[in-house]
Amino acid sequence: MRRLSIRVTTAAAAVTGVVVAHSMAALLAFPDGHQRAEHLAATGHAYWPAAVWVALAAGATAVALIAGRGARGARLATPRFAVLARGQIGVFVALEVVERIVAGVPLADLHHGVSFPLGVLVQVATAAVLTLVLRRLHRLAARVAACIRGPLRRRRSPSPWPPVRQAGPQSIVVGRVRSRAPPAGPAARPA
Q1: How far apart are CA 50 and CA 191, in angstroms?
Q2: Distance (Å, rounded) from C-alpha 125 to C-alpha 67?
């Protein structure tokens, strides 16, 4: 079950990372909005608004899985950077190829220009940031859950009866002696 959770978290984080990095790479490669819009339209990015919604859902899934594991006190199990980076680069390359095939743009176009190599670099950077954020989120959820459970555990007693004290060796031999002071106050004095 743990491996399945890690795989689902990694896949969800990779989908989110690909979309975020792809958007950032487009912003960096084409700072001018008009030029960026022309490039994206020419290379088959008409589906992009739907991709953003899918990325939001995938990101929420990854966050929920990581936070849930942390809150349950489960061992840290976040996507590894290398696995996440490879996954993101693979999905990014596949997206770029499919986009160009759908748009009728030659695949040789990938090697010309700065957007594709920049996109690969941004995928790696995004994978590093996502790995760090998910690890921190797991730890935060574990700490919050521990703070919530801590006071609840201290308030509860396993038994409604007060604890029984064990007799030490000296009380067995000598017996328990309690000193008692004489009664104080006017009501305690003989008349």
Answers
A1: 97
A2: 23
Do 25 and 119 form a contact (C-beta atoms < 8 A)? Answer: yes
pLDDT in tens, 65-83: 888 888 887 776 678 899 9
Longest dimension (CA), the chain: 117
Q: What is the pLDDT of residues 121-160, one digit of tens each?
A: 999 999 999 999 998 998 898 888 888 877 655 555 566 6
> Token pair of 181, please?
């002071």
From 156, 158, 121, select the one nearest 28 (Cα to Cα). 121
Cα gap 36→156, rounded to integer Å: 61
Report d(CA 153, CA 175) in Å as an integer: 36
DSSP H helical ranges for the chain = 2-29, 33-42, 48-71, 81-103, 115-155, 169-174
Task: Work out the average pLDDT over 105-110.
Answer: 74
Cβ-contact 108, 101 below 8 angstroms = no
Indicate the burial class of 61 (C-beta count within 10 angstroms; 0-12, 13-18, 19 or more).
middle
Note the pLDDT tens digit of each residue in 27-59: 888 888 888 888 777 777 878 888 899 999 999
